[in-house]
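User: Structure please.
Assistant: Input sequence and predicted structure:
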Amino acid sequence: MNKNFFDAIKERRSIYAISKESPISDEKIVKIVEEVVKHVPSAFNSQTTRTVILLGESHNKLWDITMEALRKVVPEKDFSSTEEKINSFKAGHGTVLFFEDFAVVESLQKQFELYKDNFPVWALQTSGMMQFSVWTAFATEGIGASLQHYTELIDEQVKKEFNIPNNWKMISQMPFGKIVKAAGEKTFNPIEDMVKVLR
């Protein structure tokens, strides 16, 4: 990972067309996630983020669970596009699940009463940084990924299937794999509407 930082940010895109192959080894994938989880900052150094890397049949099982959950809530006449989308995620090499450990959050709320309302917000900010960092690191290695949010539909069954503690709150799912088709051109709002410089 010796690319320019801004080049890496530009390369991080939502990639939906992915395959079972990976341009790097599973060991390197795990190492990337471990390094990000270790070094991304968190409020009070609370280190609340938890990740689960699903590969092989575990990855397939996640998207089978998601498909069946959606089948219960999406009308049958509209299901074909949903099925296509979920199959595109299942077609990938793996998925990273992002969680926040709310046992740690609640402990901090008790220790620091003055900031108790802020700790859940700070945990979500940490999670956002974590997701962005893994996603960007994957992009520098030629791995395509996207960020999904089927949490409410699948949280309970995923925890049961993969033996995940109840105090871990699922935030998102990141399917990834070899890029089959690049993202389209990205459009931008005027930068002066988004960045103000005051002197």
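The longest strand covers residues 168-181.
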